[in-house]
Amino acid sequence: xxxxxxxxxxxxxxxxxxxxxxxxxxxxxxxxxxxxxxxxxxxxxxxxxxxxxxxxxxxxxxxxxxxxxxxxxxxxx
Amino acid sequence: xxxxxxxxxxxxxxxxxxxxxxxxxxxxxxxxxxxxxxxxxxxxxxxxxxxxxxxxxxxxxxxxxxxxxxxxxxxxxxxxxxxxxxxxxxxxxxxxxxxxxxxxxxx
Lengths: 77, 107
Fold this sequence. Notes:
The complex is a heterodimer.
Chain A: H1 5-15, E1 20-25, E2 32-38, H2 47-57, E3 68-74
Parallel strand pairs in A: 2-3
Antiparallel strand pairs in A: 1-2
Chain B: H1 3-13, E1 16-20, H2 30-42, E2 47-50, H3 55-65, E3 72-75, E4 78-81, H4 83-91, H5 94-101
Parallel strand pairs in B: 1-2
Antiparallel strand pairs in B: 1-3, 3-4
């Protein structure tokens, strides 16, 4: 089971239209990615909530279809 | 006893507990070993639960915290995060603060 980087990016953008999204393929197997998501909508939000927003954008694939996504979230400075 | 009760007993019975894949000596997943490395750096006493040995807890913990992945760190009964959040907090000095504020003993 794997997901192309472009699909991950599109799903995150669909849920967070203003977000800056950077996806790095860590292993070249379509299963291990790092993602950096910068969005103003994270402002004032606890880190766990920020990450949950991104996981929700991925429609429950996190931990299943998408095994490993090393996630970093930030607010634009 | 339901899985949920078992989990809340573990979570509330230990100041710092990490639900992980494998054990501190033999972590079975990169994210779990990163979480262990962070706890070792913090020098706090912690206990672990190997979810690979207990399938009920492995799935039950995800519903318990509404968090889709393992590892999961709990301090004084509160869900703190997975290995990404532990890393972000550790680098920002926030994890040390959480331990101090919760009165967690050093190892």
